[in-house]
Design brief:
The protein is 24% helix and 23% strand. The protein is an alpha+beta fold. It has a single domain, classed as q2cbj1_9rhob like domain (Jelly Rolls), CATH 2.60.120.620. The strands form 3 sheets. Strands 1-10-6-12-4-3-2 form a 7-stranded antiparallel sheet. The chain has a 3-stranded antiparallel sheet with strand order 5-11-7, with no helix packed on it. The protein has a two-stranded antiparallel sheet with strand order 8-9. It is globular and about 50 Å long. The mean pLDDT is 97. The protein binds 2-oxoglutaric acid.
Length: 256
Amino acid sequence: MRLSQMQVEQYQREGIVFLPALFEPSEIAALKAEQARIFTLDLAAHLRAASGEFLGTTAMDRVSPLYARLLRDERLLAIAEQLIGPQLYCHQYKIILKQPFGKLDLPWHQDFGPWHHHDGMPAPRAVSLSLYLDEVTEFNGPIVFIPGSHRAGLLPYEVTPVPGTTPIPSLSNATVTRLAQAGGLLAPKGAPGAVTLFDCCLAHASGPNQSPYQRHLIYLSYNPVSNAIRKPTRPSHFAAQDFTPLSAAPRAALLA
Ligand SMILES: O=C(O)CCC(=O)C(=O)O
């Protein structure tokens, strides 16, 4: 899988590209079934709010051969390599849940904020791919991005506590207003199997899920080995410390 020249230029200009139907329904069904099994395991890698709300999990490759294969799937890894170069490892691998009527409310931030602040990632060279396990609509807590905001680099932030996960270096309302006046807001909606790829400096947020429909997304965040983190302060399920470069596996291998 390779992006077209137009998609590469869109990524450079806007910091985000939406790819509908990258994965087959049978693959999404298998990933959802395996996700349900992972959630039954007793793991420190799970994310849970004090209220009991289950927010997600991390480092799924450690407990699931299927999720370990997904990390290497050529559709994802080849796109990441096309955008940020070869020799990539996965800095953060997670599933974020927006449960029906859930409260998870993620403030405006750039992913490079926590990766630099908590983990000592030197430069904003990473790319994230989010794979939709459920349909994402305007109702179930979609992520809202500000196209083009990545071009500002790392913006001033204030570290904000978020229930169930590590504090998030967040952007002020004034910064978000200025960025949105320039780039507008975009919430990519789509069916299970779609993928959004976005630059690690792209400003984004997501509100609570007010709907009766769940919204589960897998995130794979690839980073060049040459930009590996220098000062980790969090457990390795939040910030990987194995910097072995990943080699691509053919798409047919996912359900093998
Ligand atoms: O899944 C979401 O709604 C947003 C997740 C996010 O922004 C993050 O984990 O940094």
